[in-house]
Amino acid sequence: MDYNDLIFEISQPGRIASSLPESDVASIDLTAKFPAHLVRKAPAELPEVSEPQLMRHYTALSNKNFGVDNGFYPLGSCTMKYNPKINEDVARLAGFAKIHPFQPAETVQGAFELMYELQEDLKVISGMDAISLQPAAGAQGEWTGLIMMKAFHQKNGDGETRTKILVPDSAHGTNPSSAFIAGFDVIEIPSNKEGTVDLEELKKQVGPDTAGLMLTNPNTLGIFEKDILAMSEIVHEAGGLLYYDGANLNAIMGKVTPGAMGFDIVHLNLHKSFSTPHGGGGPGSGPVGVKAFLEPYLPIPRIERKGEQFGLAENYPLSIGRVKGYFGNFGVNVRAYTYIRTMGPVGLRQVAESAVLHANYLRKRLEPYFDVSHKQFCKHEFVLSGLRQKKLGVRTMDMAKRLLDFGYYAPTVYFPLIVEEAMMIEPTETETKETLDAFADTLIQIAKEVEETPEVVLEAPHQTFVKRMDEVQAARKLILTYKKE
Ligand SMILES: *Cc1c(COP(=O)(O)O)cnc(C)c1O
Fold first, then answer.
1. 32 CA from centroid of ligand 1 (Å)
2. Topology of 85-343 in CATH?
3. Pocket flag, ligand 1, residue 248 (CB < 6 Å)
4. CATH 3.90.1150.10 fits 346-475, yes or no
5. pLDDT of 241-282, one tens digit each?
6. Which pTM does this prediction carry?
7. Which residues contact 362 (CB under 8 A, 6 or more apart)?
């Protein structure tokens, strides 16, 4: 239809409407199928909205949302770094976005090749011999790794005796819960004054009942475990396996690998260390990597290369089976692959170096104003304590709320549990020095407010859409009714 035809069409009132059929659904006599008293007398009042109304509704919601594209998001342990938009361009290519997992292999060779190449890259980055991209999150990667550990001990006839997983008290919270869900007993290993695993305590707990050790490194204090080689020796000598929680590989990638540290199993969080948008339960990817002797246990199907062709292989009798539908969260894997390829080995190492530099810069600027449980170099994140402010009647939660007034997302609070009134700050490498300084200035100002005008902090936030709410009631008495405006 050309322009003149269109003008003609819309200048004829009723023409378009009258050419539409009344309804293309045959009417049904409902009283013939249902008891009369259950049939509506009048049609249901269904919400009808126009396209602009719908658009405004979702745009308004998105404006209320806060993301890395809006501002600084120092949520410790979550690595809310900027997601380069080239990742999105690549993930939206029709050849990736519009394919179906049941398509014949020969029609999706590019997708298989991408997954194969991503596995190859992750092998190098983690120092492992084989990778599965199936797990959809870090926690699922942990569970997958532990189930493989269990299968390995069972194969060796040790399944009944090796029932314990040793987990330091500085581990991420998912570690003990994954071990528990995988059917193990969890033994907590305390940290020493430096915030690293106490080797003497570890030696006391290691024995013939040890299935393995799960180590978060850097630990949740942001500290690199300095005795890592001694730990791996102690656990291996006792016949246990070593699991590395590599969710925060962004602190060490390109510098050192879990493989070189003696670990047998690792998971990575592609949705943290390798950018890709996440949060609010959004899609993740938690690949697991293993040393060669555990490869037969990896989830199936595995992606295989035969000459120039890629396909799926199921014939691994020792495999723990499938842990996720299809091949993991493919879209996240495409983004992570794009990220790795655009950064290159040198770029990935610079990520780790800058992430660590930024965290230490911010730590040094803030240390005089807060209590610090472990005063030493950190990796990608660090933990402050609001104990000094608590003595003045203001708690970490209040300071976190006050930060919202200045357009920041709050740090992780009250975690790790081993630090009182904890504030866990992870700046990431994608922020500028100006942003880090502005954030430090703000937090220092809040510390001064605590001393001079505590009510301003106690009643915060003042500038947000929603004033302070009762979070316990919000969770326990969730109100989901629709309010007509
Ligand atoms: C985020 C994180 C996890 C859990 O990852 P999810 O993808 O949220 O399940 C595990 N360990 C560490 C150290 C983490 O930072």
1. 56
2. Aspartate Aminotransferase; domain 2 (3.40.640)
3. yes
4. yes
5. 999 999 999 999 999 999 999 999 999 999 999 999 887 767
6. 0.88
7. 382, 425, 427, 436, 439, 440
